[in-house]
Amino acid sequence: MSAKVKPPVPIRAGSALKIGHETVSFGRNAIAQNGSAFTVQHRLFVNDPWELIAEAIHRSLPSGRTRDIAHSFRRQAEDYFRAATIGRELAVRPVLFYYAFLNLWKAYALAKGNALMAGKTGHGVSSVAKPKAVAGSLIKFEKPTPKRPGMFQELLLHMNGNPVVLNADLRLGYLLPQILPGHRLWCYATNRPERFLSIERFEIRNDPSTRHVWLNLFLVKSDLDRLGISATKTLSQAGLAGDFEVADDGSSIDFVCFQQQSPEPYTTDPAEALAQIIQTTKNRIWETVRVISPYRKPYVYCCPSSERNARLPQMLSVYLLMYFLGSVTRYTPLYFEDLLDSKYGPLFETFLSESPLQFLYLMASEILGTEVSRPAII
User: Fold this and answer.
1) Cis before 177 (ω within 30)
2) Which of 140, 290, 271, 141 is CA-nearest to residue 204?
3) pLDDT(2) > 50
4) How many CB atoms lie within 10 A of CB 334?
């Protein structure tokens, strides 16, 4: 006998959350805190975010050696990145991009107060490439030491990632579907259904009478129907079950609403509650950077339970795949040609052409603490 499906709960009554006179939209950097006060963050548009990154690092650290080291990492990251983008040889790019990412992460970590990054660090990972079984290739997590901290382990901590991922080797086949640009090429290569479902809109609701704030996510129902996945299963595979539940007010047949199960309480300022909601939800939302409104396209990532422990924060999944490809091109360059000739070749080529700039803008947003996007018109 099949399990009984829990019916949708009613959508709670509440008003759109406002801070000051502004209605707040959900995002990793939607608000900023200064002491006990919160302000709405406004999107910045730049064609080249490197100068903004430099300014943010300079502002984050006092004058001295640590600031100088952070800027040194940032300058190296920029030169590696620019060299990779103009290089003609595709096999050279993964190594350059990886070291661009690595040095940018170090600058970011120093700006956030991690003094360990000023000393000697290790990659924290190693890779075992399997030319005849691409998906079976392994990424191993090394055990760091106090004298040589692992870069990946430090970044996982900074990004509030789940440390359970470090308990076992990571199969490349579990990492590839987490890469948003080119995801349908992964589907094509593996004959698997899509795992990313777009979020049509967010609603941040506030009930001043009870002093509670909660988040609603709306997905397009036809997307779930097309993939043959129920709303309840979507919640589970997206890692939202337990914190969100299916809700319905009977007014729409086009969307599925996932409502935060337990609203977040606050004492005086509803932004306190929103800050906590963002902190606990942000790693379960993927984004693409766009040059047209709304400038960020959000998604949930649905994966089977067997792969749930391999789920990474979005930027770390890009970082780790770039490490793997950089390791291949550095130590077994001929195997890189085999990768490009394999059924995964179009995915790797798309990853190398699309992901670096996406990564750069997402990292710039993280360093500045406000959303940074590319302008449509100068």
Assistant:
1) no
2) 271
3) no
4) 10
Q: What angle (nearest 5°) sits at the alpha carbon of residue 258, between those of residues 256 and 260?
A: 160
Give the Cα separation of 241 and 263 in Å (integer). 15
Torsion, Cα 349 352 354 359, to 10 degrees, reads: 150
Answer whether CATH 1.10.8 is correct for domain 9-21+196-301.
Answer: no
Q: How far is CA 157 from CA 66, 154, 166, 288, in A?
A: 20, 5, 11, 23
Q: Quick one: three-class SS letters along 3-37?
A: CCCCCCEECCCCEECEECCEECCCCCCCEEEECCE
Name the residue ranges covered by the structural domains of the chain: 9-21+196-301, 44-188+316-373
Q: Which amino acid is at 375?
A: P
Provide the pLDDT confidence category of residue 1 given band limits of 50, 70 and 90: very low
Q: Report the alpha-carbon distance of residue 267 to residue 315 in Å, rounded.
A: 33
Three-state SS for the chain is CCCCCCCCEECCCCEECEECCEECCCCCCCEEEECCEEEECCCEECCCCHHHHHHHHHHHCCCCHHHHHHHHHHHHHHHHHHHHHHCCCHHHHHHHHHHHHHHHHHHHHHHCCCHHHHCCCECCEEEECCCCCHHHCEEEECCCECCECEHHHHHHHHCCCCHHHHHCCEEHHHHHHHCCCCHHHHHHHHCCCCCEEEEEEEEEEEECCCCEEEEEEEEEHHHHHHHCCCHHHHHHHCCCECCEEEEECCCCCCEEEEEECCCEECCCCHHHHHHHHHHHHHHHCEEEECCCCCCEEEEEECCCHHHHHHCCCHHHHHHHHHHHHHHHHHHCHHHHHHHHHCCCHHHHHHHHHHHHHHHHHHHHHHHHCCCEECCCCC
pLDDT digits (tens, 9 = 90+) for 179-225: 999 999 999 999 999 999 999 999 999 999 999 999 999 999 999 99
Rounded Cα distance between 141 and 123, Å, is 9
pLDDT tens string 48-93: 999 999 999 999 999 999 999 999 999 999 999 999 999 888 999 9
